[in-house]
Amino acid sequence: MYTALHRALNKAAGPLTDELLNEAVAQHAPEQADLEWKQELPRRKLPGPEQEVEDAKFVKDIAAMANSGGGLLVYGVAETKADGGGGRADQRCDIGDFPETFENSLRGLAASAIAPPVLNLGFYLIGEPGSRALAVTVPGSLDVPHLIYRRKDSDFHFAAPFRNGAFTSYMSERQIEQLYRARFGQRADAAAAINSLYDDAAAGRPIDKVAWMVGVVCPREPALAPLRRDRQAVLGLVALANDLSNGAKGDRANWNGAHVRLDDLASQGCWRSGLRSWRVSTWDERPSMAWARAEASLHDDGTVWYAAAVGGTRLTTGEFADGWRVSAPRVEGFVVALGYLAQANNAAYGPRDCDVLVGIEWQGDQHIALDRPDPSGLPTENDPVARYGRIQRQWTVGGDPSQMHQQVADLALDAVNQGGIQHLHAIVPPRVE
């Protein structure tokens, strides 16, 4: 994790710790546009009007950070005010208890009292009772401006707070207009960027021989300070992705047919570095291994693309299916690999919203057909589909693994539904709480 506090203290990426806060107090670290000190938590269970005022303070702080590229709120640090300037960290304070219900209520406020809602807040308890603090990470957002209801006299109106250096101010009409223009422009740029990455990942694949599946996961907001990783670190990320994916693996016979290559990527892959990225492939030039090829690219900023052959599967008889016949479990396995590669590659950045684009590429004369497994795991041939469209989604990655399981299952179901297959066969259905 790399936050405004790490940058203020000139520290490398790492967890939020007691030592960091103590050093910030010792150095009297100043508040900044993306760093704010708070002595105590927002109060709860106050009389109606007083609670509205208290909630409004929290909502304003969250919206201001989101409108200004994201940042960090630290509760449990008293500040001293400098003449004409923002506060400086002065001493540690104890915030008391912070039960899960309190966290949920604050998340609910950020989602319901801000439009568009601010999601994926990170809550990190720091220290032991007696000097416990809470750090709240606010992600940057492409959905700016985030508006709140602001009381003025006896009426309410929409307002857009933002961080003006170490202070919080409200935007003028012209500033709000500029942010709306920026939002629409950034969406167009994001769409162009992910399509360009998809085209790069699909380029050069032998899609006249076997069908390939291609997927891209691209963070919507850039990382504050992208980490430069060496080969060993990326090997660890692929191993982590493989471990995380175990929770999605279902029926063993069908899962074997899914042929997820994460373990092969880590142990047998051919690695090479790129521009702030690492690329790994399980490329075997033998024609008999065309069905088993896969390649992934993990970028330092959290972007991931993955491409793998999904047609021409080797059958249990030793023969090979036609290149246009795609195994449904392999489609499911592809989505699992893509999802958990993205999950592992963004673990250091915390929860992030990402754009996702997935499709199947094939250039033969015959249309693609998705084959589902029979009870023994052998493919049952389906009719071809005239067109297989690319699937666009938004995922939250780098956070709760159970959320990734749900996202992976949803996208995989969409992917096999296009081929006329109603149910998943390889992925375990996510547990519904």
Give the topology, please.
Elements: H1 4-8, H2 18-26, E1 35-38, H3 48-67, E2 71-75, E3 77-81, E4 87-92, H4 100-112, E5 114-115, E6 122-126, E7 133-138, E8 147-152, E9 155-159, E10 161-164, E11 167-170, H5 173-202, E12 212-219, H6 231-245, H7 252-258, H8 262-268, E13 270-274, E14 277-281, E15 294-299, E16 304-309, E17 325-327, H9 328-345, E18 352-361, E19 369-373, E20 379-380, E21 391-397, H10 401-417
Parallel strand pairs: 1-2, 17-19
Antiparallel strand pairs: 2-7, 3-4, 5-8, 6-7, 8-9, 10-11, 12-16, 12-18, 13-14, 14-15, 15-16, 18-21, 19-20
Helix pairs in contact: 6-8, 6-9, 7-9, 9-10
Got a strand count?
21
Structural class: alpha+beta
Helix count, DSSP H or I runs of 4 or more residues: 10
Computed CA radius of gyration, to the nearest angstrom: 25 Å
Domain unit count: 2
First CA to last CA: what distance?
Answer: 29 Å
What is the strand arrangement across the widest sheet? 13-14-15-16-12-18-21
Instruction: Give the oligomeric state of the chains in this entry, treating copies of one chain as homo and distinct chains as hetero.
Output: single chain
Give the low-pLDDT segments.
none
User: Which shape, going by the Cα principal axes?
Assistant: elongated
Question: How can the largest sheet be summarized?
Answer: 7 strands, antiparallel
Taken as a percent bin, the fraction of beta residues is 25-35%
